[in-house]
Amino acid sequence: MAPLFPFTPLIETLPTTIPFTGPEAIERQQGTPFHVRIGANESAFGISPKARQAMVEAIDHISWYNDPENHDLREALAQHHTVSIHNIAVGGGIDDLLGLAVRAFLSPGQIAVASLGSYPTYHYHVNGFGAKSHTVPYHNDRNDLNALLDAVHKTGSHLVYLSNPDNPAGTYHTTTELQAFVDQLPETCIFILDEAYIEFAPENAVLPISPIHPRLIRMRTFSKAHGMAGARIGYAICDPEIVTAFEKIRLHFMVNRIAQAGALASLHDPDFVQSVVRSVAQGRKEYEALAKSVGLSSLPSATNFVTFDAHTPDRAGTILNALQSQGVFVRKPGAPPLDRCFRVTVGTPEERQAFAEILPAILAQIPEPK
Amino acid sequence: MAPLFPFTPLIETLPTTIPFTGPEAIERQQGTPFHVRIGANESAFGISPKARQAMVEAIDHISWYNDPENHDLREALAQHHTVSIHNIAVGGGIDDLLGLAVRAFLSPGQIAVASLGSYPTYHYHVNGFGAKSHTVPYHNDRNDLNALLDAVHKTGSHLVYLSNPDNPAGTYHTTTELQAFVDQLPETCIFILDEAYIEFAPENAVLPISPIHPRLIRMRTFSKAHGMAGARIGYAICDPEIVTAFEKIRLHFMVNRIAQAGALASLHDPDFVQSVVRSVAQGRKEYEALAKSVGLSSLPSATNFVTFDAHTPDRAGTILNALQSQGVFVRKPGAPPLDRCFRVTVGTPEERQAFAEILPAILAQIPEPK
Fold first, then answer.
1. Nearby residues of B298 by Cβ (< 8 Å), 6 or more positions away
2. How much is the pLDDT for A1?
3. Which structural domains are found in chain A, ordered by start?
4. pTM score, whole prediction
5. What pLDDT was estimated at residue B370?
6. Residue among A238, A251, A254 with most chain B CBs within 10 A, to mutate
């Protein structure tokens, strides 16, 4: 008998789990809204006034399709990074670009390498396009570069993924460590370097952009320091042959007009981004002091969030649930060893104050770990 | 020797052609801007004032990610169409949803059926995911339902695509014809009914929504009558099992916050959409009269564009080039038999006036067909 729906065998085997449950869905489940939203590493410091102005103006022409080439933004990004426009691919956030990279380099059944507990959407695409994730655990709360290298060599993988600075740990590797990693990768392996949080990192975490390494794809976003997560726009810096490959498969009208306009304006307002980075640095210090004051510790952060160490997965989960039930949206890593932690985005001063009052009250109700 | 880039075999074989060259790219090539943009079936009548207001307000929270479930919009669409929220999938325009349908139902090497010269992005996805397009020609400037049915049966295809009303012809099939088509499809074939232009069509072009047919996916968009092409938002109405399949593979944060807010507000302003439909009907009449007055004919249109018949592909191409070089952006179908035509979107009264002046002047320079 013919099946009712002629789904592909791949679709039939895919799980129904999704990369992230949004805070709105949790609010609907709980029946109460969050009053402190510090769980998704969204910027608490808004967007550049120039970006806002450009976005409002873009609404006037929203009846027109967006430029599918993203030409003006790509040109500006090329100038900004001192590369060619042919080195820039613009997409609907890093999420979109990760999907393109998986499609470009992995045939069904092939292996992708990354850390266990790294960005869920990367693994979602790997599985969704019929490839398989091979993971190696974090070591000392950092991506384990040696283990990743070994895994690439052992599996013959064409794709290895690394977030630097890392999400969800917040830690980073230096340019020296990263360069050694790149140098030791086989020629058959493409390295996706996810730099979503790079604006918040120290200078020695930022590999030089030029010369473009043929097997390195840098991914950047306007979601974090630029404050435009809800606009859906990011970009890749890579070899022109990879840009051309993405041209063959990408959704050409992916990036909406308003995001294009906002990103272009924000790129021309570096002072705004610098002010965000300073505010985030201040907030990180407060969170680190808070962690110490309540008898927790925190991982060193080069991002816009701080990963609080609750020492055991159970305790981290209990704290998370208590925070959420009191209207504070935070998240926690799902995989060991980081599942003993919960992750708190740097909020506004008011949000940090609210969190600093709720956290000790919650911890007072939770037994110390044995 | 290892290749420099470990692209998949599929990527290596894909062409570098893209579905559409945007008017911005043509402007950059020509070195002059278009002053009449009536080529991409964008709405000349803007967006609802309510949608505009909602979009401006959404910018205030653009630092927050969009709700990945598109919950509020899906709920409103379900109510609007008197179906369940589980029958609604929201995506980044029909372009995005077409890709999901191809991924859900076609394994590499399998066959997709559609008319020759139908929506390029559908064929782009079919090829991009490694499947193959099987096409049948238009008949009397309409999709040939019998030939499409024959092709489905002959090829055993799991997917057949039809745009009703049709783009690029502008013609339509009645509910009686469509229902007979659905009834004769084999159980193993999913029918994608692209209804991007449905608001402009007569009532007898609109199949009832309920009861939901398990193998029918209706695709709708906010790009046309709602005037939000640059916002990138559309939706599918289909069986919950298909919605669930899309959940397993879709880009969850695809649809930006501003589009979500604008679409929701526009849905609640039916008077605005009706006023657009009336304006378009007026413009179509003017275009039909214009075609006759300059010695061309036009295909009957149930859309927001009119397909002008220039009788030969060469003449259609010559007219198109002359229009573009005089600052008027129009498009023409690429495949026979419709490649003898060029396609003109209903513009504002001022744009129609400009076009009505330029077209006869151009035709005076072009020899009559033999």
1. B287, B288, B291, B292, B306, B307, B308, B309
2. 44
3. 9-46+271-364 (3.90.1150.10), 63-269 (3.40.640.10)
4. 0.97
5. 62
6. A251
